Amino acid sequence: MAFEFKLQRRVEFSETDAAGIVHFSQFFRYMESVEHAFIRSLGHSVLWHEPGPPLGFPRVHASCDFTAPLRFEDLVELHLLVREKRSKTLTYEIRFTNLSATPPREAARGRVTVVCVARHPDGTFTATRLPHQLAAKINIAPAELLGPVTEGNEGNKDRAALR
Length: 163
Prior knowledge:
The protein has 163 residues and is an alpha+beta fold. The chain has one domain (4-139): Thiol Ester Dehydrase, Chain A (Roll). It has helices at residues 24-41, 132-135, 143-146; strands at 4-10, 55-56, 59-66, 75-85, 89-98, 105-115, 117-119, 125-127. The strands form two sheets. The chain has a five-stranded antiparallel β-sheet, covered by helices on one side. Strands 2-7-8 form a three-stranded antiparallel β-sheet, with no helix packed on it. Strand 5 (89-98) and strand 6 (105-115) form a beta hairpin. The longest helix is centred in the N-terminal third of the chain and has 18 residues, at 24-41.
């Protein structure tokens, strides 16, 4: 069962701001791209078309803490770890490591929680269980890889109804 996924990418010029560093909004795009690559590595897609209503995985929480800038042409490793798995939600932690730095150093750490939803013909959504075919392939990362949960990175605990 999978609990982590790594992806490397180069920072594109269009992803930087007037100061020459990656604009904060790009980190959220990077998190989405590594999440999609992780799901694809398991043989699935975030757009689920099985019998029944189509399923999707919208975000219910996203955060990112920044510790060092990334610049044009830096090589960045995105390391996704599954922090939490519940019946209807997944929480990922994504670590951004600047591999171009000497020595390589963490540039940011993000957190994303997604909820599995069924999309109905009338446009409404209902939280639903993760598809068994996907859930069976995903495990929570070992505690020694995750480290402790600290204030500000535990996500919103008021989402019990979605789990």
